[in-house]
Design goal:
By secondary structure, the chain is of the alpha+beta class. It is built from 14 helices and 23 strands. The two termini are about 25 Å apart. The chain binds ligand EPZ.
């Protein structure tokens, strides 16, 4: 099993390019099979969750051709109407997008229930509510979600919780329903807008994506398109926060600064300098940061996917900070690991009370999920001494070339294998030596 060996203490300095957004690519690659014509998708991140969704659509007959590392041609004309049971599907949350895509196109979908990151209960009742409102019969049987409809008819759907997944899934199915669908209390995340733009480029008629109310006028069929996925807001944010934690100076290219506003605001509040240009942000920090309070919220609020990363930084800030997680019920599992590095954090329900310490010390720790794993890497980069981070397979689900990009910024990080008898010695060998 691979693990990261990190010698902390180097300020990150330099420039880094951001990949396409994983959470936009998952629905877009699923929606690509909704037409029988060929679709070209560019700026697809090369991460394991994306490999899993591509494997899933191939398993039901889609032809997937890799044009280059980040570009795929997809043709869904030969899809067979069978269940999606590919082993890869079980592992990724985003596989639920195949339900909306298949239900819209074939009026029938049978998909293994997804697992995804270990961050608490992940109900899909709002997805189901939306599909039922469109006229589908939806059942959960033998670990599969089975949806079928004679016809899909546009409907008025009010989401009880703001859900990215439900908004996109309903939007996909409704694109090929008859008549008008209105989704109220819709999610406004950039990847919701990106997916709507993608579907519109295939001939869908979706208006209002990015606001609370999305209107979808169903069309008879979708056609081929060429589309480039937006940059990953969370990957960008992770490098911004890594620069802040290590008191570095990093310019992050290929970003949409508007998508980073809640992150920029917090970084400035805690004492970092953030310079914004058309498609880049530069984050510098040269002194100890100061405390603040953070509450995760749906976009444009502070993203839950950046909660571990900011908690890690606040753990090093001067003063006491309060971090409230309002989206997922158990997203503080990494705090135990951070405590082993010297952090002083007390979790009460969905709130973490963070008393800043002057430094972390390197430790042997385990990533409990994707974003927490990224947060722990940031902690290790800022810490005194060596850390080992295990279960990096979580991190590789969503960060392309994470160790390589960090190394290019001056981090002392290497990828080692627990099966390598020499791993221990290599782990203690600084790259600088
Ligand atoms: C997406 O998950 C992302 N995943 C998550 O990113 C992200 O944390 C989350 O949105 C919030 O931004 C993908 O895009 C694949 P939700 P999703 O539906 O769609 C509740 C990462 O690290 N809810 O917006 O599953 C739910 O329990 C991952 O990249 C219901 O109650 O999230 C949560 O409290 C982790 N019923 C809230 O809504 C439902 O039917 C928001 O969840 C659906 C959701």
């Amino acid at each position: 099993m691979e693990f990261y060996s990190i010698k902390g203490g180097n300020p990150l300095c330099g420039e880094v390019d951001i990949a396409g957004a994983k959470n936009a690519a998952l629905p877009i690659l699923s929606a690509a099979i909704m037409t029988n014509e060929t679709v070209l998708v560019e700026n697809v991140p090369d991460v394991s969750d994306i490999r899993a969704i591509l494997s899933a659509i191939e398993s039901i007959g889609a032809i997937v051709t890799r044009v280059d590392r980040h570009t795929f041609r997809i043709n869904g004309s030969r899809i067979v109407d069978g269940p999606v049971m590919d082993e890869a599907v079980r592992k990724i949350r985003g596989s639920y997008y195949l339900i909306g895509a298949l239900l819209g196109k074939y009026r029938r979908a049978e998909v293994t229930l997804p697992k995804g990151c270990n961050i608490g209960l992940r109900p899909i009742d709002q997805h189901v509510k939306g599909f039922r409102a469109l006229g589908a019969d939806v059942r959960i049987e033998h670990g599969m979600i089975v949806a079928g409809a004679e016809d899909l008819i546009g409907s008025h759907i009010y989401l009880d919780v703001v859900s990215v997944g439900a908004t996109i899934n309903i939007m996909m199915a409704a694109s090929l329903a008859r008549g008008l669908t209105i989704i109220e209390n819709a999610a406004k995340e950039p990847h919701v807008v990106d997916c709507a733009n993608f579907l519109n480029s295939m001939g869908a008629q979706i208006k209002g994506a990015g606001t609370d109310v999305i209107r979808i006028r169903g069309v008879e069929k979708l056609h081929g398109t060429e589309y480039s996925i937006i940059p990953d807001q969370i990957e960008a944010g992770t490098y911004m926060f890594a620069a802040a934690a290590t008191r570095g100076d990093v310019t992050i290219h290929n970003v949409i600064p508007k998508h980073l506003e809640s992150l920029t605001a917090k970084l400035e509040e805690i004492g970092c300098q953030v310079e914004i240009s058309d498609d880049a942000v530069r984050v510098t920090a040269n002194k100890r940061l100061i405390n603040t309070h953070v509450k995760t919220l749906p976009y444009p609020g502070f993203p839950t996917d950046m909660q571990p990363q900011i908690t890690v930084i606040l753990g090093l800030a001067n003063g006491t900070s309060i971090v409230t997680e309002s989206i997922f019920e158990s997203r503080f599992k990494y705090v135990d690991e951070l405590t082993r590095m010297g952090a002083q954090i007390k979790v009460e329900g969905n709130t973490a009370i963070v008393t800043g310490v002057p430094y972390y010390t390197g430790a042997n720790i385990t990533a409990p999920d994707l974003r927490a794993g990224a947060g722990l890497v940031i902690a290790a980069l800022a810490a005194d001494g060596w850390s080992e981070i295990h279960d990096v397979v979580y991190i590789e689900r969503g960060y392309e070339d994470f160790p390589e990009k960090l190394r290019s910024l001056g981090a002392d990080i290497r990828v080692l294998d627990t099966d390598d008898p020499d791993a221990e010695r290599k782990a203690r060998m600084s790259l600088a030596v």
